[in-house]
Amino acid sequence: MDFELSKEQQMIKKMVKEFAEKEIKPIAIELDENARFAEAVFKKMGELGLLGLPFPEQYGGSGGDTISYAIAVEEIGKACGGTGLSYAAAVSLGSSPIYYFGTEEQKQKYLVPLAQGKTLAAFGLTEPNAGSDAGGTKTTAVLEGDEYVINGEKCWITNAGYSRTVTITAVTGKDHRGKNIISAFIVPTDSLGVSITCNYEKMGVRASNTCAIVLDNVRVPIENLLGDAEKGFKQFLHTLDGGRISIAALAVGIAQAAFDRALIFSKERIQFGQSISKFQATQFKLADMAMEIELARNMVYKAAWLKDKKQPFTKESAYAKLFATETAFRASNQAIQIHGGSGYMREYEVERYLRDAKLLEIGEGTSEIQRLVIARQLGC
C-alpha cells in the first residue's frame, strides 16, 4: 500500500496552494464580509485548468485524477470556504453529470467550455419541498413534439448566477409502481421563462454564489435530455456520490485552516507566564484536531482512489463526507475556544471557518442522510 502522492499530484498540490495563498487568501475576509463572488479568481482558475482538472483533454480538461481534484478543493477551501464550495460545485455537480451521462454532442457543446473555464456549471436538484427527499421533486417536464416544457422552482443552487447552463431534474412521468420518473435536462440560463435571483443572506460560505431558479414554461429541445430519461434519479445519486468526495475535501481544507491558525495562536498567546500551547488542555485540543484531520484526509483519498479505480465508492464517499464535515465543525469550534475572545473577532478568521463548516454538514446530503446511506450499504 503506497501512501505517497505521485509527482503529478505533488505538483498540483504545490501549484494550487501557491495560487490560493496569493490570489484567494488575502481577500477571503472581504469576500465573506461583502458576500462577494470572486469572479476574477475563477477566470484565473479556468486559465490554470482547474475547472477541468478531472476531465479528459479531449473535452477541454486537464486529464487529472480524482485525488488530484480533491487536493485542489482542499487547498482552495483552506484559503476560502465559499470559493472552495463554488469550485467543488462547478466541477462535481455542474460539469460531472454532463461528462458521465451526456452524449458526445452534449459534451462538445456544453462540457468543453465548462472545463476550459469559459463559464461555470450549476446543478439544480434542491427544491423548497425536496431537499433530502429528492424523490419528492415537484418540477415537471412535459414532452410536446420535439421539446420539453419545464415548470418548477429550484432553491439554493450554487453558481447559477454565473452559469450559461444549469442541469436540472424534473418529473417526466410515473413508473409501473406509481412513483415519479425523474429525468435530467440541460437548460440554458438565457432561455425564455428562466428567472434566477441571487439574494440569499447566508450564515456562511458567503463568497459562493447561491441562487433560486424559477422555470415558467421553459422550452428545451429533446436533445437537451441528459442521459436515460428513466434513470435520472440514479444519475444524480451517482453525481452526489462523487460530489461528497469534493465536499469532504473542502471540509478537510477548512479544518486544516482552523488547526493551523489555532496552533500558531497557541504558541504566541502568553498566559500565566507561558504560551497556552504548554497547557495540557490546549495540547489535547490540538492533538484531537490534528488526528481527526489526518483521518478525514485519508478517507477522502481512499474514496477518490476507489472512484478512479472504477470500484464501488458510495459507502466510502459517505464515510468521508460525514466524518470530514463533522471534523471541520469540531476543529473550527475548538480553534475559536483556543483563541478565546479573539476567536470571536472576524480578523482572526476562525469564526468564519465555523460558519462555513456548518453548511457542509447540510449540503450534498445532511449528516443524517449520510448515516442512512452508510447503514443501507451495510445491509441494515
Automatic annotation (TrEMBL):
<keyword id="KW-0285">Flavoprotein</keyword>
<dbReference type="InterPro" id="IPR006089">
    <property type="entry name" value="Acyl-CoA_DH_CS"/>
</dbReference>
<dbReference type="InterPro" id="IPR013786">
    <property type="entry name" value="AcylCoA_DH/ox_N"/>
</dbReference>
<dbReference type="InterPro" id="IPR009100">
    <property type="entry name" value="AcylCoA_DH/oxidase_NM_dom_sf"/>
</dbReference>
<dbReference type="InterPro" id="IPR037069">
    <property type="entry name" value="AcylCoA_DH/ox_N_sf"/>
</dbReference>
<comment type="similarity">
    <text>Belongs to the acyl-CoA dehydrogenase family.</text>
</comment>
<dbReference type="Pfam" id="PF02771">
    <property type="entry name" value="Acyl-CoA_dh_N"/>
</dbReference>
<dbReference type="InterPro" id="IPR006091">
    <property type="entry name" value="Acyl-CoA_Oxase/DH_mid-dom"/>
</dbReference>
<dbReference type="Pfam" id="PF00441">
    <property type="entry name" value="Acyl-CoA_dh_1"/>
</dbReference>
<dbReference type="InterPro" id="IPR046373">
    <property type="entry name" value="Acyl-CoA_Oxase/DH_mid-dom_sf"/>
</dbReference>
<keyword id="KW-0274">FAD</keyword>
<dbReference type="GO" id="GO:0050660">
    <property type="term" value="F:flavin adenine dinucleotide binding"/>
</dbReference>
<dbReference type="GO" id="GO:0003995">
    <property type="term" value="F:acyl-CoA dehydrogenase activity"/>
</dbReference>
<protein>
    <submittedName>
        <fullName>Acyl-CoA dehydrogenase</fullName>
    </submittedName>
</protein>
<feature type="domain" description="Acyl-CoA oxidase/dehydrogenase middle">
    <location>
        <begin position="122"/>
        <end position="218"/>
    </location>
</feature>
<feature type="domain" description="Acyl-CoA dehydrogenase/oxidase N-terminal">
    <location>
        <begin position="6"/>
        <end position="118"/>
    </location>
</feature>
<dbReference type="InterPro" id="IPR036250">
    <property type="entry name" value="AcylCo_DH-like_C"/>
</dbReference>
<dbReference type="Pfam" id="PF02770">
    <property type="entry name" value="Acyl-CoA_dh_M"/>
</dbReference>
<feature type="domain" description="Acyl-CoA dehydrogenase/oxidase C-terminal">
    <location>
        <begin position="231"/>
        <end position="378"/>
    </location>
</feature>
<keyword id="KW-0560">Oxidoreductase</keyword>
<dbReference type="InterPro" id="IPR009075">
    <property type="entry name" value="AcylCo_DH/oxidase_C"/>
</dbReference>
